[in-house]
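Backbone shape codes:
===
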Amino acid sequence: MWQLATGKKQFLPHLTAEIERLTVSPSGTSYALQLADNSVMVLSTTELKPVANFAGLQVQAAFHGFSAKVIPSAAVIHPVYKDQLLLSVPPSQAVLSRPFLQTYDISTDRHMSRQAITRNNVTDFNKGPEGNKIDVPDVTFIKVSADGQWLATAEEWSPPTADLRHLSSNSTANEERKQRTEVYLKIWRWDEDRSLWTLETRIDNPHQIAEGAQPARILALIADPVESGFATIGEDSSVRIWKPKTRLRNGLVVRGANAEGLIDWSCRHTIQLDQSVELTEEETFSPGLVARPTHASIAYSEDGSMLAASHMFDKSSVPPVVSFINTTSGVVEHTRTNLFSGFIKAMDFLDRNLILVSDSGIHVWDVITESLVYRTGLAADAASSAVLLAVNHEDRTFALSMSLPAISRLRIFGTSSPRPEFSHNIAKPISALLTIPGRKGYSLLSSTAEIYTLAPKTAALNLPTAAASENVVTAPEVTETLEEDEDTDMDVDGHENMLALNDEEADKPVVRPEQLARIFESSNVALMPVKDMFEAVVGLYARKPRETVAA
């Protein structure tokens, strides 16, 4: 602020995002700032201190530069606090890197916290000596352990191309850029007293190319569904299983400030996958070239005893291989080469079945009988779309989304029939497809910072808040499975929407105590209309009877 009469200048304090708009209140006592991270801050004009801050979902823009490629968000639902969404977010929409961790409450539709996980001091200078903007590391994966006490993040950073322009050959500059890439796997522990994640272990270059010890990118990161642990697959064609262990010194447990035993994370097993690849003649004679997989996926079985991993190279004629790994011994028990064709997009376990999604279709494989349950094709543009897969162990279904710049296709399948149980088109990209542990249905995060909840129709009467109850949209009940082309547009209003899925439960309703507690123990139960509360209770006990057909 510049006082024109005196020529005195006064500056706002350091902010974590760029200022897009500024306005003064009619009384002149406050400034309102709209920041580039989808938040509004109110400052007092006398002290320039924040009076209020209103933050929304700070999800990254959907498209990467001019390629119009949808960028999936690194996001996860907290397994213990099931209304909390954790995702990596950028400082502004103009920045591609995501150095912050945002915690967002889905039930109340409110921002909870944001902390830096790549740079602790966010007020550092963000420009170099030549005036070019300094790039910050990008958090590519986020996973939370089953007990909710550990958070694993994968981040990477590469030097800007302008810093390597002194190299004459473009190929040399690209190889030098890969050589100087920094990759970190960080394990964070939840600090209950300070209500934030504290860094416990940082692993530099968890995956490395054998020749020259070049750093390798992490292609996938997953959490153990049963105990504390994580698994990664990298560009070095290896799977690594990370486990905690108590820190010892001279045989004694090293304890922290609160007398708790300190924990170190280390690699328990390293499993090298098959690196069979046939390079073209031009690549064969390129000096120092190391083939790196471009497509990879990894999945834990439901009991955590098995890992399924697959990786592929862009210019390889070798058929895709799926390796089944024993997580206790770290040994590849067997491999299969006939499970799918094309490039792997995603995979996950659902009960005894392994769901594999490639650009050629969906393959459901029974790991007990080692037989293909069914295969169904995808749309012709599936190869160029961002494919997301999520499984729900409560209702035994899996959801698949394929996002393009103009439209996103959402399908929900069972494991017995290739026909989708639910099908919908959304006129905006889907950046995250998630499941809430212990609950039926799915949560969708769009590129426009909106959250949608898909659940069985009976669950639509479980109203979390009075504000959300006014914006619940329920679709008509689906009595038959829908074909691929029987799509309808979703009603988009910027709030949480409830869509009906097939309800395959028994005729007699079974009401669990936590269902009633969810209604009467809500923080906003006093604001809930009596009519809505009555309908919520009746909806748990009343159910439309099934029609019986005489033989």
